[in-house]
Design a protein that fits this description.
Blueprint (H helix, E strand, L loop, with lengths): L2 H19 L1 H5 L7 E4 L4 H5 L7 H8 L4 E2 L6 E9 L6 E10 L2 E7 L5 H8 L16 H10 L28
Antiparallel strand pairs: 1-3, 2-3, 3-4, 4-5
Subunit structure: Part of the Bam complex.
InterPro entries: BamE, BamE-like, BamE_dom
Pfam family, one: BamE
Length: 175
């Protein structure tokens, strides 16, 4: 028997042995992505809520609610779930209550800070590493403002030159 036939036979025997006992299935698992659903609400956002705020201001802070029921018009629910392979799903809930169009109160689960939430997203990163800086320096703000200067507004219609008029022949001839 040649050496290459021997290697092929040995590989087949090894595969049959591994496949027969089911250990290959334990080694090979499909990739499952992390599933994020809903609104990410942080502790800083909830701390910014004050009784008496109008609905629009609450929406500016928290975003559009995941659940806004016609039957509970004075209640908005913000729900967040994070599902990772091999872990129990993480669920968080924030509910805001309105009375006469303004914020009356809110209820919330234990929420992370923005830095804690960002650090929890990358499970591969070294846990001792600091999360990224979430604030801009004065120079970064100036650079951003310089790059995004507003353009001059368009001229009002009254200041624009009038289009040239063109005379067209009549559509019907007089009979």
């Amino acid at each position: 028997m040649s050496f290459s036939k021997f290697r092929i036979s040995l590989a087949l025997v090894a595969l049959l042995a591994l496949g027969g006992c089911g250990s290959v299935a334990n080694w090979v698992t499909p990739y499952k992505i992390d599933i994020l659903q809903g609104n990410v609400i942080t502790r800083e956002q909830v701390e910014a809520l004050k009784p008496g705020m109008p609905r629009e201001q609450v929406r500016d802070i928290l975003g559009s609610p995941l659940l806004a029921s016609v039957f509970h018009a004075d209640r908005w629910d913000y729900v967040f779930t994070l599902q990772r392979r091999g872990q129990e799903p993480l669920r968080r809930r924030v509910t805001v209550f309105f009375k006469d169009g303004v914020l009356e109160r809110h209820e919330a689960d234990e929420l992370p800070t923005e830095a804690e939430f960002v650090a929890s997203l990358d499970v591969r990163r070294d846990k001792k590493a600091k999360p990224p800086v979430l604030e801009a320096t004065e120079q970064q703000l100036k650079d951003f403002a310089e790059r995004n200067k507003p353009q001059a507004p368009p001229l009002p219609a009254s200041a624009a030159p009038a289009p040239a008029t063109t005379n067209f022949p009549p559509l019907e001839s007089g009979r």
